[in-house]
Design a protein that fits this description.
This protein has 461 residues and is an alpha+beta fold. The protein has helices spanning 2-16, 55-134, 140-180, 196-236, 423-429; strands spanning 184-186, 193-195, 247-250, 258-262, 271-282, 287-293, 301-306, 309-314, 320-323, 336-343, 348-353, 356-361, 375-378, 408-417, 450-454, 458-460.
Length: 461
């Protein structure tokens, strides 16, 4: 029953819409072609029959395809790497510009200044050392003091620059970490962020390396200073004191090696002062430096060494003034300045060592007068036992020498006055840095009075 009712309702609805729907059952051609316009058909060509590919052709084709794919992949990887490296470079440049620009320039400037100062001081020191070797114009003490001052300045400059460089490095390494916050730092070389421990380790490593380099430089400077000190001590042995330009060299102890001194005026003296510089090469129990005597008394005046002592005699060996501890035999012999002064009034005899009065004794040959007509020599004494000397014409001493008494070493600044010198005059003569050789005696004058070396003795510069 329900089905029948449903069929009736559908029929009613269909009859209601039948008038509104128009159905066109004709043919509808959008590209309609009339019979007059029908084109002449053209036959299509037969399809190309490609030849069958061999297995080698297929293999080469596969290789070409794989090569092409490889090139494409390489090009793509190259483009990616370029982009990534470019971005990394930009990031590093930004980091350097932001954090390390001023720091790097400061470190570079400090290092450059340090290198320039060290080079300047070293060049000056070497120039001074070369000048010391080439010229004997300056005294050894002045040159030594000057070089020591230069080396001290060099070491002070190196230490100052090391301190400044350490401060600059500390400020440079600490500032980026402070800006980026606690626990995060960047490597100053790569620009990547590092954990706190790694950043501190890198900073400590850089600072440690810099300090090690500076310590090595200071050690090298200390070694250079020691070497220069050794060179100066070596050079000092070849320099002459008190501005003297020449010296007498006695190469060995020999009875044939001595120097005759021929004064212009005869020695007839009631007072005198004799001074000289001596640097012995060896000292025996009695080593003669200055001797004057005649046939009657060969020991009128004697100035000599005895092991570590200095001795001064007037009028004979019985009248003796002696001081111990003058010659240092523990190491290399040094230049020693000796002066012997005597006056017949009260027989006052004084011995001076290096400008200081070390002993003064009255009653030495009191009232005695040094007779003229004797022979004066350096480095030996004449005992008056032998034939006439061909040099001086005085009663002979030529065969009267004893090798055990001979002086070996150097001697300079030998002068003699017919009066007592003051303490100030003797101090000026004994000054190593002074010009004592320019002050000459009126009886024997160094560089003026004739002195004749014998048997190998010679003048040296």
């Amino acid at each position: 029953m329900f089905q029948w009712l449903l069929i009736q309702v559908c029929l009613c609805l269909a009859l209601a819409y039948e008038d509104e729907i128009e159905v066109n059952y004709g043919d509808n051609y959008f590209n309609e072609i009339t019979e007059e316009e029908t084109p002449t058909p053209t036959p299509s060509p037969a399809p190309c029959n490609s030849p069958d590919l061999t297995k080698w052709d297929k293999l080469f084709s596969m290789l070409e395809n794989s090569q092409m794919r490889e090139n494409m992949l390489l090009q793509y990887a190259d483009d990616i790497i370029k982009v990534e490296v470019g971005s990394l470079r930009d990031e590093m440049l930004r980091f350097v510009a932001q954090y390390s620009g001023s720091c790097g320039s400061a470190v570079e400037t400090a290092g450059r200044n340090m290198a320039l100062q060290l080079e300047t001081h070293l060049r000056g020191t070497l120039d001074n050392l070369k000048a010391c070797k080439d010229s004997a114009g300056g005294s050894p003490s002045e040159i030594t003091n000057h070089l020591e001052a230069l080396l001290q300045q060099l070491l002070s400059a190196a230490q100052t620059q090391a301190s400044r460089l350490a401060k600059v490095e500390a400020s440079c390494f600490s500032s980026p970490g402070a800006m980026m916050g606690p626990g995060v730092q960047k490597d100053p070389k790569t620009g990547f962020q590092l954990p706190e421990n790694e950043g501190n380790g890198h900073k400590d490593q850089e600072v440690t390396s810099q300090h090690m380099a500076l310590e090595e430089a200071l050690a090298a400077l200390q070694e250079t200073r020691l070497e220069l000190g050794e060179m100066m001590r070596s050079l000092k042995r070849h320099y002459l004191p008190a501005g003297c330009e020449t010296a007498l060299l006695f190469p060995m102890r020999s009875r044939r090696i001595y120097t005759s001194v021929i004064p212009e005026d005869p020695l007839s003296l009631s007072s005198f002062t004799v001074c000289l510089w001596a640097k012995p090469a060896a000292v025996s129990n009695k080593t003669v430096l200055f001797s004057y005597g005649n046939r009657r008394n060969p020991y009128e005046i004697q100035l000599l060494f005895g092991h570590t002592s200095a001795l001064f005699t007037v009028g004979g060996e019985a009248h003796l003034v002696q001081i111990k501890g003058v010659v240092n035999t523990g190491g290399a012999y040094e230049w020693i300045h000796l002066c012997g002064a005597w006056t017949s009034d009260q027989g006052l005899a004084s011995l001076w060592v290096d400008g200081k009065k070390v002993v003064s004794t009255p009653g030495v040959a009191e009232g005695h007068v040094i007779p003229e007509g004797g022979s004066l020599q350096l480095g030996q004494e004449k005992n008056g036992c032998c034939p006439q000397s061909p040099v001086s014409g005085m009663p002979g001493f030529e065969g009267g020498f004893d090798a055990k008494l001979a002086f070996a070493g150097k001697m300079t600044g030998v002068n003699m006055w017919d009066r007592l010198l003051t303490q100030e005059e003797i101090s000026q003569l004994a000054s190593r840095e002074g010009h004592g050789c320019e002050q000459r005696g009126n009886m024997v004058a160094w560089g003026v009075t004739e002195m004749v070396p014998h048997g190998g003795a010679q003048f040296i510069n």
